Amino acid sequence: MEITENGFVFSDKKELLQIDSIHHYLSKESYWAKNIPLETVKRSIDNSLCFGIYKGTKQVGFARWITDKATFAWLCDVYVEQEFRGLGLSKKLMAFMIFHPDLQGLRRYQLATLDAHGLYEQFGFSALENPERQMGITVSNVYDIDPS
């Protein structure tokens, strides 16, 4: 799928993704994936439903869904480059993604955010019901661990 709006292209085509740009943003600018290795980014993209925003030849935004395409989808790694914020691109990306054929009829859509609650609430996300039922394992600073 691909749409063009106001000179920006929104696409789910993995062949358009600029892996080095995505890695740079995630490893250097994001708060959630600091120091993430390039190989980890590549593997995450290979195993996810990915979306990009492009202006000309430059990738200016990204998001990916971890999903079984049947019951569950987790939205993550969402960003718009700093110089392109404030143009409504995040909203357009969400609207583009939420109607993707592979994300229809699922039982649960989930995400975690530090500061974008207002954006996601516009698309039906809310605080979890019964959060006490949710469990997880968090490995802090996993990308800072020296493997040797």
UniProtKB/TrEMBL annotation:
Gene3D superfamilies in alphabetical order = 3.40.630.30
Q: Which PROSITE patterns does this entry report, sorted A to Z?
A: GNAT
Where is each N-acetyltransferase domain found?
A: 1-140
Q: Record's InterPro entries?
A: Acetyltransferase_Butenolide, Acyl_CoA_acyltransferase, GNAT_dom
What does UniProt give as the signal peptide span?
A: none
Question: Can you say what this protein is called?
Answer: GNAT family N-acetyltransferase
Q: Which organism is this entry from?
A: Pedobacter fastidiosus
